[in-house]
Write a structure and sequence with these properties.
This protein is α/β, with parallel strands linked by helices. The protein has two domains: 278 residues, Aminopeptidase; 159 residues, Glucose Oxidase, domain 1, CATH 3.50.30. It contains 13 helices and 15 strands. It has a 15-stranded mixed β-sheet that branches. Strand 4, helix 4 and strand 5 form a beta-alpha-beta unit. Helix 1 crosses helix 9, helix 2 packs across helix 9 and helix 2 packs across helix 13. It starts with a helix and ends in a 16-residue tail after the last helix. The structure holds zinc ion.
Length: 498
């Protein structure tokens, strides 16, 4: 054997042994993730003492303290000027008066209508309610909406852009008709009723101060004294043919500022420490309803939160033993998710580490249960994998490789589509990273009867299954944090790419 060949042989052997060592280490630390630890943390986070961890409330603060103390105990750093808390403020808007009257008929909030828009009026306003039906140029040219409330059908489209079009045309507000039947409307109205008296949380931004009242199609027929079928016809053919109605409405509001915080813990990498992998969950839930029932949120998203904790601990132990990841890892538990992904939006707008150097986000939301699809299946070792191919051609393969090598779960891609009717790709915190072209994977185990109910409790969690799911996410994280090249942004989702 000549010298050069010998040399290559040695180098190859060295690379193989480094790999073998690294894989061994990886497996050793994966073993520290245990059902027992997951249960211990979740038993506290989903206990009644935490009162459903509603954003800005006492229970959320207790959860934040618990997370901070934990990260401190495993020697991870607080990356926000030494703190583990990224504090931010939200405004809490409470509607002190919402009145909506058609002719002489006073409608009842959360029975006849649901109030959605915005506004703060000193006195009641009288206006005409005109029927537009569908929002398109033709209809807008036929019906004068200036200084009027405008009745429209809600059909599939997102109401945001419709609102803009109608308000731009000079309308005072809207009456939106849900097309999903009276039973559906009643369910929604009940949900709003159960939250009445609680402020609506959001970022304190200027909004279009115009009210939107939502009604059922039956109620709309009653308001216009016209059968639903005729309203539908008119929406398509001649919206101007429906006679308008006199309405009176008034909304007043009270605004308060609320303090909340994301919890962040940081593990610095070695030779690629400028690059950061983000592993996330939301630790807030929806609190307590007006009947005093606590929504413990054991699965949503207590499960993701304790999974992040266990993964963090595994990496921290490895680091302590001298096996640090090459890239840095940021563990982040956000608040405000249930109010509209607010904590992750705040982080993405105010990142502690530059987003250009943020290589991936692995987000974990509801991984503690078995959903409808799998409840009767023999093999329940599954996880839904969402978004892994949308921004990078490599992320899905990397996750699959680690699954085949270490965990052997069923990776189910049924929700992995931008046009999935459930819209899961848009419905948890990873979306705020994906928006900034950071390749993400969303790990999720689906919905069940206890989803957003007071019955989402810790006794229903499948800790053994959750342990396996956590291990997969750990292995994929290890790989992403240690591989030579970060995953390229070359995926199929061109819509998100700017
Ligand atoms: Zn959730």
């Amino acid at each position: 054997m000549n010298k050069a060949k010998q040399c290559i042989g040695v180098i190859t052997g060295l690379i193989l042994s480094i790999n073998a060592f690294s894989q061994n280490a990886q497996s050793t630390y994966a073993e520290t993730i245990s059902a027992e630890d997951l249960r211990k943390h979740l038993t506290y986070l989903a206990s009644d003492e935490l009162e459903g961890r509603d954003t800005g409330e006492k229970g959320q603060k207790l959860a934040a303290d618990y997370l901070r103390d934990f990260y401190k105990s495993i020697d991870l750093a607080g990356p926000v000027d030494g703190s583990y808390f990224q504090k931010f403020q939200l405004s809490s808007v409470l509607w002190t008066e919402v009145a909506f009257q058609v002719g002489k008929n006073k409608l009842v909030e959360n029975e006849d209508f649901i109030f959605m828009g915005d506004g703060d009026m000193k006195k009641a306003q009288k206006a005409e309610l005109v029927f537009l039906g569908l929002v398109n140029e033709e209809n807008l040219s036929k019906v004068d909406v200036t200084d009027k409330l405008v009745g429209i059908w809600a059909i599939g489209e997102r109401t945001g852009s419709l609102t803009d079009q109608i308000m731009d045309a000079g309308a005072l507000g809207m009456v939106v008709v849900t097309m999903e039947g009276q039973a559906n409307f009643d369910r929604m109205a009940n949900r709003f009723k159960s939250l009445s008296g609680k402020g609506r949380l959001g970022f304190d931004k200027p909004t279009v101060q115009r009210p939107i009242f939502m009604v059922s199609s039956d109620k709309m027929a009653e308001i216009f004294e016209t059968p639903v079928d005729e309203l539908k016809e008119a929406a398509k053919n001649d919206p101007g043919s429906i006679q308008s109605q006199k309405v009176t409405f008034k909304v007043t509001k009270n605004k308060e500022m609320v303090d909340t915080e994301n919890v962040l813990a940081f593990l610095e990498g070695t030779d690629k420490k400028e690059e950061v992998l983000v592993i996330s969950s939301h630790y807030d839930h929806v609190g307590v309803n007006n009947a005093g029932e606590i929504f413990n949120g054991a699965d949503d998203d207590g499960s993701g939160t304790v999974t992040v904790m266990e993964i963090a601990e595994a990496f921290a132990k490895a680091a302590k033993d001298g096996t640090r990841p090459r890239r840095s890892i940021l563990f982040i538990n956000v608040s405000g998710e249930e109010k509209g992904l607010l904590g992750s939006e705040y982080y993405a707008e105010n990142p502690i580490f530059p987003l250009e150097n943020t290589v991936n986000n692995l987000n974990i939301d509801m991984v503690g249960r078995i959903d409808y699809e799998y409840q009767d299946k023999e093999n329940q070792d599954y996880v839904y994998v969402i978004g892994s191919e949308m921004l990078s051609s490599q992320l899905k393969i990397i996750n699959e490789y680690n699954n085949i090598t270490y965990t052997d779960l069923i990776l189910d891609y049924r929700y992995d589509a931008e046009d999935d009717p459930n819209r899961f790709y848009y419905r948890s915190d990873h979306y705020n990273f994906a928006k900034h072209n950071i390749p993400v994977i969303f790990f999720f185990n689906g919905v069940h009867d206890d989803y957003h109910q007071p019955t989402d409790t810790v006794d229903k969690i499948e800790f053994d299954l959750m342990e396996k799911r956590a291990k997969l996410i750990f292995h994929t994280s290890w790989d992403l944090a240690n591989r030579e090249h970060r995953t390229p942004v070359d995926g199929t989702n061109t819509r998100l790419q700017r």
